[in-house]
Amino acid sequence: MLEVKDVNNYYADLHVLRDVSLEINKGEIVALFGPNGHGKSTLLKTICGLHPAAKGSIVFEQEEITRTPAHKIVEKGIAYIPEERHLFGDMSVYENLILGAYNTRAHKDNQENLAFIYEIFPRLAERKTQRCYTLSGGESRMVAVARGLMSEPSLLLVDEPSIGLSPSMRSVVFKSLEKINREKGITILIVEQEIGDALKLSSRIYMIKKGQIIFERSAAEVNVREIEKAYF
Amino acid sequence: MIENLKKNYSLILAGLAVLFLVLYPQLGARSYMLHLFILFFTWAVVAAYWNLLIGYVGIYSLGNIAFLAIGGYTSGILSKIYGLSPFITIIIGGFVASMLVTVFLGLPALRLRGIYIALLTLIFADMLPSLLTQTRDITGGGMGLHGIPGFVPGMMKVHAYYFCLAFFVIAMIVIYRVINSNTGLAFVALRDSEDFASTLGVSRYRERLKVFAISSFMTGIAGGFYVHSLGDISPTTLSIEPFLLGLAMIELGGVGTFFGPIIGAAAIVFGNEFLRLAGNLRLTLLGALICVIILFYPGGLMQFISQAGNFISRITIKRS
Amino acid sequence: MESFANALVSGLISGSLYAAMALGLTIIYGISRVFNFGHGVIALMGAYIAWLVNQNAVSAGLPLLLGMFVTVVVMFCFGIFIYRFAIGPLMKKPNWDISTVLFMLGLGIMLENIVLQLFGPRIKSIPVFLSGNLRLWVIQINWHEIIVIIIVILAILFLNLFFKKTRTGQAMQAVAQSVPGAKVVGIDIEKIFGLTFGLAFAVTGFSGILLSTKFFMNPHIGWSWMVTGFVIVCFGGLGSTSGTIYAALILGVVEALTTLYLGASWVWPIWFIIFLIILLVRPQGLLGGRN
Questions:
Q1: Which residues of A fall within a CB distance of 8 Å from C31?
Q2: To 5 degrees, how large is the angle CA C209–CA C212–CA C213?
Q3: CATH of the domain at A64
Q4: Residues B124-142 pLDDT 10s
Q5: Which of B119, B134, B287 sits opposite C109 (nearest CB)?
Q6: B127 and C107: CB-CB below 8 Å?
Q7: What is the distance between the alpha carbons of residues B264 and B253, in angstroms, rounded to a whole number?
Q8: Which of B31, C52, C176, C253 could form an SS bridge with C31, CB 3.0 to 4.6 Å?
Q9: pLDDT(A104) > 70
Q10: For the structural domain made of B2-319, what CATH number should be given?
């Protein structure tokens, strides 16, 4: 479904992605691990168009999207859930969610999608009219994921969803991701620091270090300790 | 390697230029040319210290012409009405300008986002003519201040020329020291890489106040040299045209470079003749010039010269 | 007492005019963080365009309305043009916060001078909408001023509806609150910025027409409108439209009272002092945001 081939990217003079290649198949959940600052988030940002690749190619559903602008990539069905969330603080939860479907394709189904979201995240239904700057860390994380879902993506790019969350919040988030994948068939590429939970969720994993993919395994083949060792 | 060569070339060129400027009046220059050079010396200082704020430290002051005016008026009034020696009043003028500006503009606005100092200095500069009108008994109001004494009794243009040249050279040396001081280097680091420099723990507020004070002080002194060389000053100094000219000098020369403002000032002061040909469209041309430079050639003349210099250096190295 | 009351009313009226003008500044800053240093000239251009159309319109019936319409359309296109060819490219380079300021300054002065060359330095005016006075107790107000206030209120309501109810308006609000967030939900940032400039220029140009009915037009008045606009926007809180409106009304009254009791030449020093106090006491303004 998604094919990333020999992608290179830079932050000013810093070569942050070096010939990165990976593949995601439809319906999978794939995890991307690696030390901080080694390119995990950058890769996601490159795929979704926020930080276009300097070299290489990205093909999604047989379509070349390497140079496609970010807002068009959303239309094509890729939703990026940033680690920083980037919610519209002065707007309510409801308004943020509605804006998630800004591109025309999905907003016809707004009410249906909202119903599904309120089912997975009941907290959000309660907080519907609250301004987002009043939400807690976990709640705003949920809004970020939910907002991404509103565009009816076929591929979800999730950047460190559990960061800064309490263990109970974390399990809520991961359970919801699993449900999204199971019930809606949405493919997920997740970047995580919390190896354990992400490993349980995914079917395959990649490891990135110093901007390069150093290995790929099926999730059944590895355990947490092996991955942690690979960090060093 | 190229950097050292460039530095040596620049120093040699600068030295030669100063030598030429010292000898110039002896070569039989006309009074009008001396006048232009005096304008050039004072404006170059104004432009350089304005550029120090905008281009090096990131203080978006739009009021530097007002600092010049404050220094000039203070020095003019004190020497004309109270008969003090210009050498003293010029320094006082610089202090007054620096005090007023740092206290009323720097203290409130430099803690805040860049836009605020731009707004505050702009409004300040716009309000000064009204104040001048209110105090017309001392300042001459809209008519301006005339008959300001020269540096020495019976001063001739050529004496003013040398005084201003000396000031110009000293002012440039001071800027050079500031840019290469710990403060200056820290600011250049900040300018080039926001994240990195904040780890150096640069206390931005205090350091910015310091540079702001220095800049307004020297600009105020430039104002003093201006009035004692030319003999008068009026609120037209605070009008749009000098303001635009100053901006054009910085932009044309190259923001954030050492020689940029000097080159820009030279271009504008000596090229003003062409501007005068444009007659009524002067301001249109100036505005258009600024827009075009910002859009297409933001590095100004220094960028052009630097590229040419690189080219030359590369050739000369290849030869040897 | 009578002169105080009249000054108060007069101040509220000019305040509402200032509000209409300052809104354009707030809209641009709120959404794109660009501070429009050519703001005054834009208002002025609006007035002159309407005046020009007015002079040349043959039909007696609705010449001023035609002028207003033409102004709004022309200024809207001009705004988009300026964004696409100047501000947009500058914003993608480093130091855009100062380069856009200097650019708009240069542009503003250039345009002001062109207006001066085209129209001459003498005062022009746009005819009042309706003549005749009204007297309420001690207050003297003319019909024209009442119409102007109604127009301003309608304009503000219209803008409010636009931002709250239309998709584009909501997208603009989204961009104002989080540019990365807007990108992530599929909003075309470039298009929104362009439309923002178009909208802001149109509003500003329109307000210039209204202002010119109360204050006479000459090519230099744009600058003083602009400085007033700056103080208002900072006082109200950068990026807050309601803050701008309140600030404009308050400052309009302050200006009127200052002129009454101290004289017109004290107005600018008062602006400066007010601005200074704002910066010292509450830099984010009355309703300024949290960022």
A1: none
A2: 95
A3: 3.40.50.300
A4: 998 898 888 888 888 888 8
A5: B287
A6: no
A7: 4
A8: C176
A9: no
A10: 1.10.3470
